[in-house]
Amino acid sequence: MKQVIIVRSDLKMGKGKIAAQACHASIGSFKKTDPDKIRRWEIDGSKKVIVSVKSLDELLEIYESVKDSGISYYLVRDAGHTQIPAGTITCLGIGPDEDEKIDKITGDLKLL
């Protein structure tokens, strides 16, 4: 069991901003996950993997793939209080769910 957070590298966010956006993605997707999957994930160590994409188009392509997969997800739109304009899509949280299911969607992405 794992959770994957996908971050857009083209936005050139600072480290703190990336951390905050990744947390939003993690919690948002977690809240949408079936409680049985959450328990299995927590027992398994609550693994999280942070990967990156180079563009909004790439992120949205993955978003479209995950929407019909049965895996929980959460698309983060920034509030615009600091580094980037309001409404900017920054991250996508996927899972937690079974590694194999998530890997079919994100397995080719590079670690952040």
Automatic annotation (TrEMBL):
GO molecular function: peptidyl-tRNA hydrolase activity
First-level EC class: hydrolase
Catalytic activity entry: an N-acyl-L-alpha-aminoacyl-tRNA + H2O = an N-acyl-L-amino acid + a tRNA + H(+)
Annotated localization: Cytoplasm
Gene Ontology CC entries for this record: cytosol
Primary location class: cytoplasm
Keywords: Cytoplasm, Hydrolase
Pfam families to which the protein is assigned, alphabetical: PTH2
GO biological process, one term: translation
Described purpose of this protein according to its UniProt entry: The natural substrate for this enzyme may be peptidyl-tRNAs which drop off the ribosome during protein synthesis.
Similarity comment text for this entry: Belongs to the PTH2 family.
Presence of keyword Hydrolase: yes
Name of the protein this chain belongs to: Peptidyl-tRNA hydrolase
EC identifiers of the protein: 3.1.1.29
UniProt xrefs under InterPro entries: Pep_tRNA_hydro_II_dom_sf, Pept_tRNA_hydro_arch, PTH2
